[in-house]
Specification:
Layout: E1 4-7, E2 10-16, H1 17-21, H2 29-46, H3 51-57, H4 65-88, H5 98-114, E3 117-127, E4 132-141, E5 145-151, H6 158-174, E6 181-186, E7 199-203, H7 208-225
Parallel strand pairs: 2-4, 5-6
Antiparallel strand pairs: 1-2, 3-4, 4-5, 6-7
């Protein structure tokens, strides 16, 4: 589903960074989705359901196996992201399950060891030149200014780096900060991953050359969805 940002005094719709970066297909996920379907059927059989009951369950109105799996991960990720944001803003933490608490505590241990000065959390940024916007997770300072993204998915995708470039560029255009780069912070978030540590990937400082990759995704999204950017009047 496409997401847009609206800003007071500006009639244009700004497409979200995550929306336009999702335009590229991921064919390597097809075998994984098929595997999730098989696992769902095995689970239903283990629960003692008959073939007819399984057929009824798999009607189009029901989620597929990979959707159930993805949604379960997304639920944990959303809660952990919210808890991190509340912590950084000094607010009361949301209610969490045991697994969610384990994931959050893993992040907290990592965060407290970094010694970052927090400059902002859940900051909305926009690029008026290209017509995109997004909400970066955190902006910090230690030896340098860094844009941080929390990731609770299964692993790393190249789009994660492009997302960080897009946020960095938007901050530069706003004029208040010039990031020296970014950091992707991966927080293993599933029950079978509770013993895995937080790991990170550094993101270079964005340059006009690196932004060409972001612009290519954005251009493709606008073509596919027939959403040309309307320049300011």
């Amino acid at each position: 589903m496409s997401r847009y940002y609206d800003f007071p005094g500006d009639e244009r719709q700004y497409v979200s960074v995550t929306t336009f970066l999702d335009v590229a297909s991921k064919p390597f996920l097809i075998p994984w989705a098929a595997k999730m379907e098989r696992e769902l059927i095995r689970l239903l059989l283990d629960q003692g359901k008959t073939i007819e009951e399984i057929k009824a369950y798999l009607e189009p109105k029901q989620p597929y196996g990979f959707q159930l799996y993805t949604e379960s991960r997304a639920d944990i990720g959303a809660t952990v992201h919210k808890a991190i944001d509340m912590k950084l803003k000094g607010l009361k933490l949301p209610r969490m399950t045991k697994v969610e608490k384990q994931v959050y505590n893993k992040w907290l241990t990592w965060w407290e060891a970094q010694g970052y000065e927090l400059l902002g959390a859940e900051k909305v940024v926009k690029n008026e030149e290209l017509g995109y916007a997004g909400t970066l997770d955190a902006f910090v300072k230690r030896e340098a200014f860094l844009v941080i993204d929390w990731k609770t998915g299964k692993g790393h995708y190249p789009e994660h780096i492009l997302q960080n470039y897009a946020y960095q560029r938007a901050l530069v255009l706003e004029g208040e900060w010039t990031p020296s780069g970014g950091l992707l912070v991966y927080i293993p978030s599933q029950p079978d991953e509770v013993d895995k540590p937080v790991y990170t990937r550094a993101v270079p400082q964005v340059t006009p050359e690196l932004m060409k990759k972001v612009e290519a995704y954005l251009d493709l999204w606008r073509i596919v969805n027939n959403k040309p950017w309307r320049v300011a009047a």
